[in-house]
Write a structure and sequence with these properties.
The chain is mainly beta and 685 residues long. It folds into 7 domains: 41 residues; 174 residues, Immunoglobulins (Immunoglobulin-like, Sandwich), CATH 2.60.40.10; 96 residues, Carboxypeptidase-like, regulatory domain (Immunoglobulin-like, Sandwich); 68 residues, Immunoglobulin-like, CATH 2.60.40; 85 residues, Immunoglobulins (Immunoglobulin-like), CATH 2.60.40.10; 78 residues, Immunoglobulin-like (Sandwich), CATH 2.60.40.10; 87 residues, Immunoglobulin-like. Helices cover 6% and strands 49% of the residues. It has a 5-stranded antiparallel sheet with strand order 48-47-50-51-53, with no helix packed on it. A 4-stranded antiparallel sheet has the order 3-2-5-6. A 4-stranded antiparallel sheet has the order 10-9-12-13, with no helix packed on it. A hairpin with a 3-residue loop joins strand 50 and strand 51. The longest helix is centred in the N-terminal third of the chain and has 28 residues.
Amino acid sequence: MKSAISTASKRSGTGLVLTVLVLVALFLGAVVLPIRRERARDAPVLARSSVPGSKSVGPELVAARSLTAQPAIQSQIIGRVQSSSGIDLPGASVCALRSTEACCTASECVASDLRGRFVLTDVEWPTTIVASAPGYLPLERLIASATGPSQLLRLTLGGSELSGSVIDAAGGPVPFANVTVRGLESSSRSVALADSQGQFRASVSPGPQEIVARGEGFSCALDRVVAPATGIVLELGPSSEIAGTVLLSETTRPLQQVTVTAERVLNPWDVNGLSREPRSSATTDASGAFRMGGLRGGGTYRVQLDDARWGSDPLSVALDVGASSAALVVTARPATSLMGRVFSAAGVCTQGEVQLAGLRWSRAPIDENGSVRFQSVQPGHYSVDVYCEHSLPYHEEIDVGAEPMARDWKVQPGLSVSGSVVDSGGQPFPGAKISVASSGDPSADTPVVVCSSAADGLFSCGGLRPGEYDCSVVEPVDGTAEVRHVVLQNDSAPGVVLHLRPMGSVHVHLRASAEASVSGGHVFARSPTALPIQAKRVENGFVFEHLPLGRYQVYVDQPVRDVASAELSYAGQVYTLELTAPQASSISGFAVDESGAPLLDTWIKASASDPLTGSAGLTAPQVLTDESGAFALMAVRGGIYDLRAQNGSGEGERLGVAAGSKDVILRVTRTAGSLDGEQRIAQPE
């Protein structure tokens, strides 16, 4: 600082400049630096590679005549959070959202200090900041550039509260987790930072909400609730990751500053069957390398580019719990973008999505301005399907060339089925999922429409054509739910009342055993006539809400020990029981080839044997065999597992292995098309 002041003094030749610089330095030391220390202590920033969402990289980010691209302009935002009456709000959550992200998880969040001040660093422009505080409605503000003034964010009293905790798989708190909430029937967004004990509070608009929690080193957790709600528990699992390199197809040179996305596939046999979980993304570095952490293992992901100038074919990647993928090579080809706006009879459509099918399949949400954008679109022929809430689907065929393309889509109003959901006592039931399915031709344009009941129990499922439909409640799950047959001709069908059967709830507490403390585990309930239902984790245990009356088997993970019976016999009954916490165990053994020789560096993984127990996703982190072909799968909870071995030469499996088994032999059979020399066979000493 002394040298800087001295230099400035020499240049100016006046004492006035020196005085001004000293005052500025004192201001920065007294104001900005304490804010930075407050943020560093109370709100650690999440890893960028773990942030989900589609990050659009504009043409200006890719150099015209080289494979290098300039990074986005980054700066900081300084501001203050106050109430509408001008009172400073300490502890408010302030997050910076990239304007092109498909989901609402923030790339950086901080907490305001005791005077309501905050500093967001490394902000990419343009950006949207969201401020939230318990008891206040969230506020969004779009900031176009770094040249603007200090931001004064004034929040208005109101909203419905969501509160709960973020925990890890062992039941411990995840401090300073990032929690974001998105309204399912509105465009509202809210953010919250968990405290040092993993507790969070957020104020949102009433109605159905989607909650996403993330913590550094963990995978995300997603839940859907109806606000207001308390006692929400979001469990973060071990983080898995996908890594690789992006190479240009013609020269195989690395491509930097392009975005790679990964989206979980709901059906591993159908790469188009994507789930509704947020997408994860990462930007390639100077060597073209990328790494996406924070992924939920035990499933399949579709990996591809999302960029204004480059595209790629989708890659299907199977990812195990707590594991890293093999190094991927994503081949980039020239591509362009498709932009569109959706209009309905009422004006701009603000709820829905557009699907694009052709050389690639993707979908994009319609934003609050009715706009939608697809990137990495390679030239070719595509089918476009437009879905706007309460409107008929719209379909068209287009040919995309080398240049960016813009389209306007006009959707027509459809018919609707509306009414209310009531419980067995005739009271409104909020948060129910209603299905309106065509009872005629299953190939109809809108065979199934799903909507939710609001806080007053009312629902409206729109976008239907004339025809015959079956209307029923599909959540809460009830195998004998009431079905109402509806015929739509030229008018909508109002006043449909769906009655729920009498229901009760089961509360489960886990007790520690002599061998294990209360930690992880999933609790299931199974009736003789239905598939298992997984309990929701709450702060003091697990709960099954809205179960139809009847007898249930209740168990932890798999029904092999400590299976309890619960019988619900009257509406509103609360049945409480205790189960023993699962004991951590292991499975060990050896992988050998067809001749019995031990195999080195063979992947071994375990998954629950019987998917009908509800534990289809119960797995153990995969491991590699050592020089003697030995493996040990640790942290396996009690039950029966199927073991699978895989290496560059072949595969093998062993079914029905009990937790705690030792000396299990997994024989790997050579598969057709395997490469000689890929697999190393350990030589006996």
